[in-house]
UniProtKB/TrEMBL annotation:
Stored SMART domains: AAA
Protein name per the record: ABC transporter, ATP binding protein
Keywords: ATP-binding, Nucleotide-binding, Transport
An individual GO BP term: transmembrane transport
A cellular component term, taken from the record's GO annotations: membrane protein complex
Organism of derivation: Saccharolobus solfataricus (strain ATCC 35092 / DSM 1617 / JCM 11322 / P2) (Sulfolobus solfataricus)
Amino acid sequence: MPKDFLEGANRVDYMTDILIDAMDLKKVYKTKNIEYVALRGVTLKVNKGEFLVIAGPSGSGKTTLLDLLGLLDSPSAGKIIIDGIDVTNFDEDERAIFRRRYIGFVFQSYNLITYLTVLENVELALAAIGIPVWKRREKAEEILSMIPGMLELKNKKPNELSGGQQQRVAIARALANDPKILLADEPTANLDSKTGEAIVELMKKLNEEKKVTIIMATHDPDMMRYADRIVYIRDGLVEKEVIQNE
């Protein structure tokens, strides 16, 4: 597969302000004896530069939807177009290349490598996208400098940091590939309310200054107020949408 296969393959004519168009997404998980329907037909458009919150109770389908939009999994039915590219039927290798090109991930568990320093964790993410050795340190320090207070902690290891600091490192790592889309799944769930608010404020700043499109799943109403739009899902279906900050 050529490295530049995304340049021409699967492209469709598309409205320039729509970054993600998810159409009638369904996801069914099957085991030998059980069939569980996680999404029942979700249709969703996301604008370039939008800060979108996916809200709903546990088990509503928030994480499943983020997994599909982030190409961590494939839908059982429906279609996903991202930046004019139909990604619905990408195989595993194609999805991996697309993720490296377009998407950064932030999870509620920070997933940092405990024996590496802050700087080395970010460098590792840069290595994964093919940044040459000689350039990684400079680029990692540049990314950390974007996040207040992180550059001075570059030689610390994760167990020497607070939860909020670890999540900031996770955000820095997610920015390694200069993503167009940042997906955050309950990023404040393991943090106290003050620290959680600081994390979402940081993501809002990145959204406004770097024009990163952010999709955040949360059930915390205090974190929803930073969103441009909230999409509520329940039982695998869109229940309602609320537009904010107009």
